[in-house]
Write a sequence for this structure.
């Protein structure tokens, strides 16, 4: 009898433990049923799940605050005039199969990326890493062949994988990693094409920070069902678009949203073609466009406004105050003056003309990106007033990128990858190496710009960087290589029903992005509601 | 015998042409698979990943088109469909294995049910075309056929899934708890009801109208009048004289529909977030996932052709005239 009651008690305790386990449900993206692939270097939804939650990096770069947070490395130190970085590896970390995590795993991972460039998604070996060597059992040294103070951002994207498993593979780039073994806070509990569940790793090195016991990630193919799930309160975290979210937020007190600044969207001109070589003309466009209207109507209020030097909030200290008098803003009168200064007059058909050039162009936009197409239509309406004819031309996404690469366009609505910091953004946006092929879509090629961009990588002194940035800002303000319109939103809807501590506009401690380490940093800040 | 041999030769030639088209068409699309694959996550992803993805997928570009074609034919017949670009490095056969069963289950069963229900209603509708019931049937089937079915799906989803909460709003089984055994089976059936009803209603009108029109033209034949004059039982005339002849065109249409079951039901899958081939094909086309596109098209062509071949044989059995 005594024994029975003991068993019952144990069962009861077990049950109460089960019912106490809290669960975070999230949708990462609306891309249909899952395929079993937990390779952290794969650009897929399950790959994104494994990066950060199952696999971790040496340091975490918080792009919202600009902080570097030591992660699998307990500390890091620059040396040899910014030509090497030493990482101290954290003690007592274990892989989820019990094997200790060592410095060999780190060196193995770097060698792996060197041998299989398709895994090197952040391009560490292309950005100056020459060699990765073991100093002692807890120290690893990354040597560079050039000075690159921004390399840490690349290193912060390297997910350390276990040598004792990955070294046995013939081709790790073709490894679907169905049973992931990582150092991360979560381990795979169950996989099906419809839902992936993760549970807390009991041996996690930073376990006291983890208060979310389980994560449940259902698969959605259509926006309709994902949005209804949000409205039903089935999701704690949804990285999706939701039309008229304000109304939902009013109806349901738990649901809230924060659409943070994502990548900036520009009106790019083909700088290789004739009328757009004129700075005055480009400047006229900058004054002619009412970006506020584009955000409010085209993006239904969900884009964030952008300043002329495209520096995001959190990095205001990089904005050069001396140049603020050069900042342009929507002003039709100035725009008209600039158009005529550039030599354009309205022809018989009402279109601005100069010699044989008529300002009448196809503006390219990816087909199916409905919000962007709406922006183009508004843009075209706005410019019509000045006598400019922009024909909205949605084209297939592949063709869209191909035409930009082949310089086969006049004007295009497109974006620039912002990267981790404004430094990286300026490099993406202005470096001649990225002209047409990368984020420098208009093809800005300028020697002095390239030199300034190189100099940023040679220093880690914020004050020196500020000086360089102010020169770059001057270049942007004087030349207007493209007209920044707004920041595309990072979709983020959250519910305070089960968890609190979410980032939002008032407390923007992390960018709630779905790919990378931001997820785990955010989850560490969540508290279950009792 | 000659008829069957004829059909078989025709089958082989058509299959070969379908395979060749299947190889050429996706390659006429502009763009680069690496960029398309990343585009599914919108403009907020890291561009550096494109470079790495291009290296991973870059194998095919070095080969000329002809040797790609030879490899393609060889691989298709050995069942080696390769690695999917979109779900790299997952094998195409794994992607198909997780989507084809759902499609056959949902679309297959719905097609059969819809055909049976529609044909019976059509027989009745044709037979009683002058009665009020026949008119009601005619009007409602015309109406059903003209409703866009994704809209119907969204309406059902909103009313029965969200507002009333009678049915789940997404997925093929519960994603809220991990189920096994009988509970899983029940959950699967429960989740299939709403998408299945949408599919049945969407195609029902077509079946009713085809069958009804066939019936009416057969009912005008002399042998029906003769049978009536002989005083045969009405039901007997309806089923054995009229319907047996009238069903032949419907059988052909049913064969084609069965063949297309493998292609899935894209819009239903999207609206209900239901796994299936339609959505995979859509994603594959959007991301230029040649291996996946080719494998899915191969199965669609194969099943349509086999279904047609089977229907030809059944036809020969049902209608002695074609055996000739």
């Amino acid at each position: 009898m005594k024994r029975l009651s003991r068993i019952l008690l144990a069962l009861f305790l077990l049950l109460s433990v089960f019912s106490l386990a809290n669960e975070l449900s999230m949708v990462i993206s609306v891309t249909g049923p899952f395929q079993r692939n937990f390779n952290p270097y794969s650009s897929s939804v399950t790959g994104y799940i494994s990066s950060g939650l199952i696999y971790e990096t040496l340091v975490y770069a918080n792009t919202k605050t600009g902080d570097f947070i030591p992660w699998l490395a307990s500390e890091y130190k620059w040396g040899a005039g910014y030509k090497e970085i030493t990482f101290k590896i954290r003690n007592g970390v274990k892989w989820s199969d019990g094997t200790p995590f060592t410095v060999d795993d780190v060196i193995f991972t770097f060698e792996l990326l060197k041998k299989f460039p398709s895994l090197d998604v952040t391009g560490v070996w292309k950005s100056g890493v020459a060699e990765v060597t073991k100093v002692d059992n807890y120290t690893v040294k990354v040597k560079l062949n050039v000075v690159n103070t921004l390399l840490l951002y690349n290193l912060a994207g390297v997910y350390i994988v276990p040598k004792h498993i990955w070294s046995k593979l013939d081709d790790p780039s073709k490894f679907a990693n169905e049973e992931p073994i990582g150092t991360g806070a979560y381990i795979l509990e169950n996989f099906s094409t419809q839902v992936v569940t993760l549970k807390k790793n009991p041996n996690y090195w930073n376990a006291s920070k983890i208060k979310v016991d389980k994560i449940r990630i259902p698969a959605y193919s259509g926006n309709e069902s994902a949005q209804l799930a949000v409205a039903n309160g089935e999701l704690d975290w949804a990285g999706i678009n939701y039309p008229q979210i304000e109304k939902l937020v009013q109806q349901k007190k738990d649901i809230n949203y924060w659409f943070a600044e994502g990548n900036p969207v520009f009106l790019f001109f083909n700088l290789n073609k004739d009328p757009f070589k004129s700075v005055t003309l480009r400047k006229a466009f900058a004054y002619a466009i009412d970006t506020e209207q584009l955000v409010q109507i085209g993006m239904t209020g969900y884009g964030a406004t952008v300043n002329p030097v495209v520096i995001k909030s959190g990095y205001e200290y990089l904005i050069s105050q001396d140049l603020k008098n050069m900042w342009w803003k929507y002003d039709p009168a100035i725009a008209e003056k600039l158009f005529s200064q550039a030599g354009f007059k309205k022809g018989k058909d009402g279109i601005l003309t100069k010699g044989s050039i008529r300002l009448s162009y196809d503006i390219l936009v990816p087909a199916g990106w409905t919000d962007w197409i709406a922006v183009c239509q508004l843009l075209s309406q706005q410019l019509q007033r000045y006598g400019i004819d922009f024909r909205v031309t949605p084209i297939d996404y592949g063709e869209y990128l191909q035409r930009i690469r082949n310089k086969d366009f006049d004007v295009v609505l497109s974006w620039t990858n912002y990267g981790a910091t404004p430094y990286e953004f300026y490099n993406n946006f202005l470096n001649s190496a990225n002209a047409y092929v990368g984020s420098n879509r208009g093809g800005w090629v300028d020697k002095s710009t390239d030199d300034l961009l190189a100099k940023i990588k040679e220093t880690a002194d914020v004050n020196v960087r500020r000086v360089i940035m102010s020169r770059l800002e001057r270049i942007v303000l004087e030349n207007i290589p493209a007209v920044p319109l707004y920041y595309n939103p990072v979709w983020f809807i959250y519910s305070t029903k089960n968890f609190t501590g979410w980032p939002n506009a008032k407390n923007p401690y992390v960018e709630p992005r779905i790919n990378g380490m931001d997820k785990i940093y955010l989850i560490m800040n969540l508290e279950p509601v009792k | 015998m000659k008829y069957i041999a004829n059909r078989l030769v025709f089958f082989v030639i058509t299959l070969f042409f379908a395979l060749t088209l299947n190889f050429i068409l996706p390659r006429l699309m502009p763009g680069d698979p690496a960029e398309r694959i990343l585009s599914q996550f919108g403009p907020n992803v890291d561009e550096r990943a494109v470079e790495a993805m291009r290296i991973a997928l870059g194998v095919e570009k070095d080969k000329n088109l002809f040797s790609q074609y030879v490899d393609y034919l060889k691989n298709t017949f050995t069942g080696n469909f390769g690695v999917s670009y979109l779900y790299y490095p997952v094998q195409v056969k794994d992607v198909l294995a997780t989507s084809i069963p759902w499609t056959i289950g949902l679309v297959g069963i719905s097609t059969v049910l819809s055909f049976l229900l529609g044909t019976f209603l059509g027989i009745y509708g044709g037979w009683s075309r002058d009665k009020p019931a026949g008119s009601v049937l005619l009007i409602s089937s015309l109406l059903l056929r003209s409703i866009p079915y994704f809209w119907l799906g969204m309406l059902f989803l909103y009313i029965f899934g969200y507002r009333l909460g009678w049915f789940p709003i997404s997925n093929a089984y519960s994603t809220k708890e991990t189920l096994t055994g009988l509970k899983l089976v029940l959950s699967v059936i429960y989740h299939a009801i709403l998408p299945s009803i949408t599919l049945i209603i969407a195609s029902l009108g077509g079946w009713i109208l085809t069958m009804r029109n066939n019936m009416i033209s057969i009912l005008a034949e002399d042998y029906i009048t003769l049978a009536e004059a002989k005083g045969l039982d009405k039901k007997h005339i309806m089923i054995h004289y009229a319907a047996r002849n009238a069903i032949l065109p419907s059988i052909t249409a049913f064969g084609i529909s069965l063949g297309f079951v493998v292609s899935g039901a894209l819009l239903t899958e999207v609206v209900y977030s239901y796994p299936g081939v339609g959505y995979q094909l859509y994603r594959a086309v959007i991301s230029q996932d040649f291996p996946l596109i080719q494998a899915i098209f191969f199965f669609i062509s194969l099943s349509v052709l086999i279904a047609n071949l089977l229907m030809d044989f059944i036809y020969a059995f049902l209608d002695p005239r074609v055996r000739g």
Notes: Chain A has a mean pLDDT of 91.
